[in-house]
């Protein structure tokens, strides 16, 4: 099973479970049904966004811990500056 198929399968499973709860096919106490179940999609979206923001921040924070990637990026920047200077663009100091 490919990663895409696995992701789609999990999304369909979670959607089915939520739909069963939302349509009251699966019985929950009245308070849970009226106050918690309707906000689960919003909570999931906020949680997923927070997770992605954390992963992005952690990647930026630990970027210098990857010497090969840092060296490659610095080389690409130097190459881009060289090409731009050859075309007459002022790119500032190194």
Automatic annotation (TrEMBL):
Cellular localization per UniProt: Endoplasmic reticulum membrane
Any single Pfam family the record assigns to this protein: DPM3
Gene Ontology process terms (BP): GPI anchor biosynthetic process
Any single GO CC term annotated in Swiss-Prot or TrEMBL for this entry: dolichol-phosphate-mannose synthase complex
Transmembrane segments: 7-28, 40-61
Membrane topology: Multi-pass membrane protein
Pathway: Protein modification; protein glycosylation
Keywords per UniProt: Endoplasmic reticulum, Membrane, Transmembrane, Transmembrane helix
Biological function: Stabilizer subunit of the dolichol-phosphate mannose (DPM) synthase complex; tethers catalytic subunit to the ER.
Family of this protein: Belongs to the DPM3 family.
Subunit structure, as described in the record: Component of the dolichol-phosphate mannose (DPM) synthase complex.
Name of this chain's protein: Dolichol-phosphate mannosyltransferase subunit 3
Species this protein is from: Lophiostoma macrostomum CBS 122681
């Amino acid at each position: 099973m490919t990663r895409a198929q696995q992701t789609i399968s999990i999304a369909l499973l979670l959607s089915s479970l939520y739909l069963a709860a939302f349509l009251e096919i699966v019985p929950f106490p009245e308070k849970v049904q009226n106050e918690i179940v309707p906000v689960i999609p919003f909570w999931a979206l906020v949680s997923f966004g927070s997770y992605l923001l954390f992963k992005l921040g952690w990647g930026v924070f630990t970027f210098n811990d990857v010497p090969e990637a840092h060296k490659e990026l610095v080389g690409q920047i130097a190459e881009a500056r060289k090409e731009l200077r050859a075309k007459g663009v002022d790119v500032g100091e190194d």
